[in-house]
Design a protein that fits this description.
Blueprint (H helix, E strand, L loop, with lengths): L8 H10 L7 H21 L9 E5 L5 E3 H14 L5 E6 L6 E2 L9 E9 L10 E9 L10 H4 L6 E9 L3 E6 L4 E7 L4 E6 L10 E3 L10 H11 L10 E2 L5 H11 L2 E4 L10 E2 H14 L3 E3 L16 E2 L1 E4 L1 H15 L2
Parallel strand pairs: 3-5, 11-12, 11-13
Antiparallel strand pairs: 1-2, 3-4, 5-6, 6-7, 7-8, 8-9, 9-10, 13-17, 14-16, 15-17
Helix pairs in contact: 1-2, 2-3, 5-8
Length: 338
């Protein structure tokens, strides 16, 4: 039996910290708290059709989107799991317009947490894969005060950890602290995340692209030309590519992380700034993919170099295998300079 089958998430994090004498163990504890929240959310996702947790609440979130009941459940579980451990000074969720401050009765910590409690929630009612995304930074303001926008609006390159949880045929937690990307599958028989994907490396080039082609009419000309290029037959460049699109970013990027591929959510004439959120969707996924050897861009610049100006800022996203992302950047930039 492989030794990786005995490597729990908690043990893996602790052993990683042992390589750094300056580590305090706090990062391992907060990641353990996150994994507990993931287990609770996974349990509810798996029995969602059996309890009154499917469908809409009747409310809209800060982005004007209809709120699913399971969105609210995941949002609340993450806050309840993370607000009392003394790790964080502030949090941000897709479901809240403003900063989520730590209650006065709890200790204030040196980290900030940004999260999308349930990415792809439009897929809930049809039993498609969905996910949780999280991003962690060290605060930059004094430790004895509540967290501020300054602590939260940091470039992606300042992340100290990021990850996602995919709720699908199995529940998988993938995370990085900048030294490798590791995946853990939840064993439901005894409730532990066990190492299943050791030191993930994304292939440099692929034959898979993921994009909502129903929006083709509204795309900019450079992207249209790129998609047509992928669809052409050419043996030398291993074309045509195959289209694979789930409609849940976590599911699409997870597949591409393992097999290679490019995921695209571009801007268009209706959404000039794109639709995905920079801080708690694009930055954490970009950190993971880059550590795995991939690339993430808005079409012109590196995602993690963007200086955010608001908590719910949007951006286009092109992410995945390095050579594929470089190729789409070429098509986009060529059109911009005409």
């Amino acid at each position: 039996m492989s030794k990786t089958q005995f490597m729990t998430l908690a043990r893996h994090i602790i052993e990683g910290e042992k390589r750094h004498p300056e580590a305090t163990g706090e990062l391992s504890r907060l990641l353990s708290d996150l994994s507990l929240a993931a287990k609770v959310i996974s349990l509810e996702v798996n029995k969602a059709g059996l309890v009154d947790i499917l469908g809409y609440t009747g409310d809209n979130n800060v982005h004007g989107e209809k709120v699913k009941k399971l969105d609210v459940f995941a949002h609340n579980i993450l806050i309840r799991a993370m607000d009392h451990g003394g790790h964080f000074c502030a949090m941000v969720s897709e479901e809240e317009e403003e900063i989520i401050h730590i209650p006065a009765k709890h200790k204030i910590g040196k980290y900030v947490l940004l999260f999308d409690p349930l990415d792809g929630s439009s897929n809930i009612d049809v039993n498609n894969s969905i996910g949780t995304i999280f991003s962690i930074y060290k605060r930059i303001t004094p430790d004895d005060k509540p967290g501020t926008h300054e602590d939260l609006l940091q470039k992606g390159i300042k992340q100290v950890a990021a990850g996602y949880v995919l709720y699908g045929s199995s529940t998988i937690l993938v995370y990085t602290t900048g030294e490798g990307v590791y995946g853990f599958t939840l064993d439901p028989s005894f409730g532990e995340f066990l190492l299943s994907h050791d030191d993930i490396k994304i292939p440099k080039k692929s034959r898979i692209y993921s994009i909502n082609e129903g929006n083709y009419l509204y795309w900019h000309s450079g992207l249209k030309k790129y998609i047509k290029y992928l669809q052409e037959e050419d043996e030398k460049t291993d074309r045509p590519y195959s289209s694979r699109y789930v409609g849940s970013m976590v599911a699409d990027i997870h597949r591409n992380l393992i097999y290679g591929g490019i995921f695209m959510y571009p801007s268009d004439h209706r959404h000039p700034k794109g639709k995905l959120r920079l801080m708690y969707e694009c930055n954490p996924m970009s950190f993971i993919v880059e550590v795995a050897g991939g690339r993430a861009s808005d079409g012109e610049q590196r995602i993690m170099e963007i200086q955010p100006t608001s908590l719910h800022e949007r951006t286009p996203l092109f992410i995945g295998s390095e050579e594929d992302v470089k190729m789409v950047e070429q098509f986009i930039i060529q059109e911009l300079v005409k």
